[in-house]
Specification:
The protein folds into two domains: 296 residues, Orthogonal Bundle (2-methylcitrate dehydratase PrpD); 127 residues, 60s Ribosomal Protein L30, Chain: A (2-Layer Sandwich), CATH 3.30.1330.120. 53% of the residues lie in helices and 7% in strands. Strands 4-3-5-6 form a four-stranded mixed sheet. The protein has a two-stranded antiparallel ribbon with strand order 1-2. Helix 2 packs across helix 6, helix 9 runs antiparallel to helix 10 and helix 15 packs across helix 17.
Length: 447
């Protein structure tokens, strides 16, 4: 059985009853987190551009745009919600894929789930299957695919989205094989666009591509049946090394359970988080003041350094990919939330001055001890004070608890929703398997 065929066979044969309870519970966390950051994203400039674009291109009103209160076609809705959901770079990640699994998949699920009248169980199943495909294809081609310069959220995200969309549309085997083939020519996204509006576009494009591919395949559109493993297929062209042996563990070890997604406490690139944790810990322990600091050195493995491309960011989008800004703002304000990532704070003379004292480097000890696919997991921070004292801390990324995740959702959702809809949305998501359609959820997360 070929690689693409193996994935399709797994998707077709897996039912809701095959899902472990823990996978369902974590999927609800993914829904809560991604919808929350989408609601925060819908008040960003990128959302206004998307809304204007949707008015220009039109579309049958089938599916809702989170937070905006408008409907458009399922493909357009997947595109818009994926883009808005990734606008703040605040959505979940997973290793060793080095990508964001939920934001390309959930918008596809919500768009088709709403337009087809799917039940809560249907959308949970489709989402978890899409998540599993994302992780297994990602693991097979990681980290080579990422180090070649591809953004896995965009490329591999398209496969996760088409898997979920195909399940919701109940495609037959040949149709689903075609859907994967079509999606293979949609899968694109370059890391060169980090720190611009096109990075969130990647997530939207992946979600849209998955929906479009599944809808076309259902109507009889054809494509290669070996798009992943073929001579000119995804793996051979877009990775220097790959191993599809990981597909033997499809559903045997659900990736949504282990290694499980990482829900972000800060709205910045995952590569900044471990160092931000270390810096915050040192500040709290030694009461470090910005004016007392002579120099800060942050060490990571090569992949982490490679993705943080802005040493002198000019705006909030660039600042999300700047270790210099992230550590400076933590030191200046002792927090790194939504209120800290603004153009004004990036350009503040105090921030600019402090960033010049911060250095990011490749740490040999982390290079030796960390797998290349875990580029964001660990960082080491050294703070040299003007009076000669030195403080050091090595820290990992930090996973949010359920209570912290709910608090994050409340903070994000409150930017777009009234209190009654905010509370109602949490209740629906927590009991998603009980709803007969997505209408109760969608009514809560639009204006």
């Amino acid at each position: 059985m070929g690689v693409t065929e193996k994935l399709v066979d797994f998707i077709i044969k897996t039912n809701y009853e095959n899902l472990p309870k823990e996978a369902i519970n974590i999927a609800k966390q993914c829904f809560l987190d991604c919808i929350g950051v989408s609601l925060a994203g819908c008040v960003q400039p990128i959302a206004k551009i998307m809304e204007s674009y949707l008015k220009d291109v039109g579309g049958t009103p089938q599916s809702s745009i989170i937070g905006l209160g408008i409907k458009t076609s399922s493909t357009n809705a997947a595109f818009a919600n994926g883009t808005i959901g990734h606008a703040l770079d605040y959505d979940d990640m997973i290793f060793p894929v080095i990508g964001h699994p939920t934001v390309p998949i959930l918008p596809a699920v919500l768009a088709l789930g709403e337009s087809t009248g799917a039940t809560g169980k249907d959308v949970l199943l489709a989402f978890i299957l899409g998540f599993e495909v994302f992780c297994k294809v990602g693991a097979a081609t990681s980290p080579s695919h990422w180090y070649k310069g591809f953004h896995a959220t965009a490329t591999i995200g398209t496969y996760g989205a088409v898997a979920a969309a195909s399940k919701l549309l109940k495609l037959e085997e040949e149709q689903m094989m075609n859907a994967f083939g079509i999606a293979g020519s949609e899968a694109s996204g370059l890391k060169q666009n980090l720190g611009t509006m096109t990075k969130p576009f990647h997530a939207g494009h992946a979600a849209e591509g998955g929906v479009k591919a599944a809808l076309l395949a259902k109507k009889g559109f054809t494509a290669a049946k070996d798009v992943l493993e073929g001579r000119f297929g995804f793996a051979k062209l877009m990775a220097d090394g790959y191993d599809f042996g990981v597909l033997d563990k499809l559903g045997d070890q659900w990736d949504i359970v282990n290694p499980a997604p990482f829900f972000k406490p800060y709205p910045s690139c995952g590569g900044t988080h471990a160092a931000m944790n270390a810096m915050l810990s040192l500040i709290k322990e030694y009461d470090i003041k910005p004016d007392e600091v002579e120099r800060i050195d942050a060490g990571m493995n090569p992949g982490g350094v490679e993705e943080l491309i802005y040493t002198e960011p000019k705006n909030a989008l660039q600042a999300k990919f700047s270790m210099q800004f992230c550590l400076a703002i933590i030191l200046l304000e002792r927090k790194g939330g939504l209120a800290q990532f603004t153009d004004a704070k990036v350009r503040d003379p105090k921030t600019v001055k402090l960033m010049k004292r911060i250095n990011l480097y490749v740490a040999p000890e982390l290079t030796e001890s960390l797998p290349l696919g875990w580029v964001d997991k660990t960082a080491s921070v050294k703070v040299k004070m003007k009076d000669g004292r030195e403080y050091r801390k090595t820290a990992d990324i930090r996973h949010l608890t359920w209570d912290e995740l709910k608090s994050k959702y409340e903070e994000c959702a409150s930017l777009a929703l009234p209190e009654n809809k905010l509370r109602g949305s949490i209740d629906v998501i927590m009991n998603l398997e009980k709803v007969k359609s997505l209408n109760p959820l969608m009514e809560c997360i639009i204006k």
